[in-house]
């Protein structure tokens, strides 16, 4: 039996997003039981929803977790950087300079987490 495990340690690089950054969700996010006062399986965030990074934390000393406030939905959800794309103009310009335009395109993955 083998387990798939992410080996990349994100913490060796600076975070992709700063507090206050405007971001868009690239996946649907359902309640896994950790969001209070909502049923397990309820959709908290839809693909394409726009939010703002409020805070940055870490998980397992390996990943950045971004606390993102989705004002229209009235929720604050912890998300990984790979589940978000930046909508801030300065980030778009920096990514274009690095040749990372593909990172700014919306993900085609419409599966639930």
What tags apply to this protein structure?
113 residues; alpha+beta; SH3 type barrels; two-stranded antiparallel ribbon; 12% helix; 31% strand; disordered C terminus
Can you tell me about this structure?
With 113 residues, this protein is of the alpha+beta class. The protein has a single domain (10-98), classed as SH3 type barrels (Roll). It has two helices and seven strands, in the order βββββββαα. The chain has helices at residues 89-98, 101-104, and strands spanning 22-25, 29-30, 43-45, 50-59, 63-70, 75-79, 84-86. The strands form two sheets. The chain has a five-stranded antiparallel β-sheet with strand order 6-5-4-1-7. A hairpin with a 4-residue loop joins β5 (63-70) and β6 (75-79). It is globular and about 40 Å long. The two termini are 23 Å apart.
Layout of helices and strands:
Blueprint: E1 22-25, E2 29-30, E3 43-45, E4 50-59, E5 63-70, E6 75-79, E7 84-86, H1 89-98, H2 101-104
Antiparallel strand pairs: 1-4, 1-7, 2-3, 4-5, 5-6
